[in-house]
Design brief:
The chain is built from twelve helices and nine strands. It is of the alpha+beta class. Strand 6 (about 245-250) and strand 7 (about 255-260) form a beta hairpin. Helix 1 runs parallel beside helix 4 (about 55-90) and helix 2 packs antiparallel against helix 4. The protein binds 2-{3-[(4-chloropyridin-2-yl)amino]phenoxy}-N-methylacetamide.
Length: about 350
């Protein structure tokens, strides 16, 4: 019995002195002291040999030792897990992550999207068409006579391999295609890039963007055109914007008009931007010419419609206070990063 007690005391010492190092040592410790053939188990087997009057005393000491061995194991294990957790905790998962470099929308795209969202609310849907077009869809169907100056080689980029092909000079080609194949009524808005053979400068470029609109149905009138465009500019430029229509000429509309809005910079007082007139020209429009309807197999006796077209670059320059149209196509990220919202 005394021998056993001495042994237990020695084991206690060993346990207390045992450093809590790596997981392998812990497992060795577990097998040695707490395993099925381990020291604790063996000592309990020794109970048999303890005299009956000492059994209770020995039992208490042995239980105490067992608790010590088990407590050591639990503490050790927790310490190891603690080290593990510390490694993970070195990454503080509550901190915000590194921001992914986000792109920004191109100012032309922002402007187009704003225009589109306004016409969407009036029931117009977006239609897109090819930038390489044939003569019919870009010119002939639009009632541009064969010797019209707009057909001149100077203004149009022709495709070398096929003189019937060209880079579209306006987005009207998309409306022609819609009238040829869609069912009436048609209510579409056609944004896109167009090309003209012009000298590149701060004010003009050989490619730029347009948005055109088309509405064809029975009984569409010039009053519908005026009201639609008036709604548009009020949404775009504010409720106090003034408009005026001036008679104009386009081969594809009759009658034709140009729409001015009161200058957004001087509010009609007269400044350098509006050339002291108080007005800014923003779009051309008119009732679709009966010849154009006929060219698309639409009966002009039954149907009528209006169309309009506007450039994007000029109003975008004004809106964002930019002084050189070339910035839009140079893709300098220091320029592009400055645009984040449509309004
Ligand atoms: C402008 C003027 C305009 C149209 C575009 C159009 C299209 C078809 C039929 C009739 Cl398919 N017209 N488009 C009409 C009037 C004016 O644009 O100054 N654009 C920048």
């Amino acid at each position: 019995m005394d021998e056993l007690l001495q042994q237990i005391a020695a084991y206690r010492q060993e346990i207390e002195n045992q450093p809590a190092n790596g997981a392998d040592s812990l497992e060795a410790y577990r097998i040695k002291f707490l395993g099925t053939k381990g020291i604790v188990k063996n000592l309990f087997t020794e109970m048999r040999n303890v005299p009956a009057d000492k059994k209770k005393e020995f039992g208490l000491i042995l239980n105490d030792f067992k608790q010590l061995a088990e407590a050591k194991y639990e503490n050790w294990k927790q310490q190891l897990e603690g080290t593990g957790t510390t490694t993970v905790a070195a990454i503080d998962v509550t901190l915000p992550g590194d921001a992914l470099p986000l792109g920004t929308r191109h100012p032309i795209n922002l402007f187009l999207n704003h225009v589109i969202s306004i016409f969407n609310r009036l029931g117009f849907s977006v239609a897109e068409g090819p930038e390489i077009e044939d003569d019919w869809h870009n010119f002939t169907a639009l009632n541009l006579p064969e010797h019209h100056p707009a057909r001149d080689m100077q203004d149009t980029f022709y495709i070398q391999q096929n003189p019937d092909w060209l880079l579209r000079t306006h987005t009207s080609n998309t409306q022609i295609r819609a009238m040829e194949k869609e069912q009436l009524p048609i209510r579409i808005i056609c944004p896109g890039r167009v090309y003209r053979n012009e000298t590149i400068s701060a004010r003009s470029h050989c490619f730029f963007h347009q948005i055109e609109g088309l509405y064809i149905d029975e009984n569409v009138s010039f009053a519908d055109l005026k009201q639609t465009l008036y709604f548009f500019v009020q949404e775009m430029y504010g409720k106090d914007v003034k408009v005026r229509f001036r008679p104009s000429y386009f081969p594809f509309t009759e009658p034709s008009a140009e729409m001015d809005i009161s200058c957004q910079l001087c509010h009609g007082e007269g400044c350098a931007v509006c050339k002291r007139t108080g007005w800014l020209e923003i779009l051309g429009c008119g009732m679709v010419h009966p010849k154009v309807l006929e060219n698309c197999n639409i009966d002009p006796e039954k149907y009528s419609g209006f169309a309009f077209g506007m450039g994007i670059e000029r109003p975008a320059l004004l809106k964002y206070g930019i002084n050189d149209i070339r910035l839009f196509s140079e893709n300098d990220v220091r320029f592009l990063r400055q645009f984040t919202s449509a309004t």
